[in-house]
Amino acid sequence: MIKKEGFDFCFDENACKTCKGKCCIGEGYVFLTDEDIENISGFLSLKKEEFLKLYTRKVNGRIALVDLVIKNEKRCVFLDDNYRCEIYPKRPKQCRDFPFWESLKDKNFGEIKKLCPGIVACS
Ligand code: SF4
Question: What is the mean pLDDT of the chain?
Fold first, then answer.
């Protein structure tokens, strides 16, 4: 169970074993930091420029991962068929920080619970 100061909920990482990548599927963007770009391109043994061309796009001036649409479902390009992240050891900061995002801090618990089965009340 992970608790983070300033957040009213906790995260049960065991939920990831059965949830089938809910946080990697659907609407939304995975924005990358400069460090993410360095880390992921290195992990994939690609030049930074190659990585950017193959796996990213610009959204409102920021760099985000591209999505795939499979069976009408929008999903992160790095989510594999078994709902595992192919770049897990170097996944973006935004993914590592989930669900402890500033934008979720003041949301109603019932509302954020719908985003992820791992979001639980702290015991
Ligand atoms: S990079 Fe990995 S953890 Fe982040 S959304 Fe894509 S598949 Fe999920």
Answer: 93
The pTM (predicted TM-score) of the whole model is 0.89
Provide the β-strand partners of residue 120: 10
Q: Is the CB of 104 under 6 A from ligand 1?
A: no
- Ligand 1 pocket test target in 25, 56, 83, 87 with most atoms within 8 Å of CB: 87
> With a 6 A CB cut-off, is 16 part of the ligand 1 pocket?
no
Question: How many other C-beta atoms are found inside a 10 Å radius of the C-beta of residue 73?
Answer: 10
DSSP string, 80-114: -TTS-BTTGGG--HHHHHTT--GGGTTS-HHHHHT
pLDDT at 20 over 90: no
DSSP classification of residue 63: E
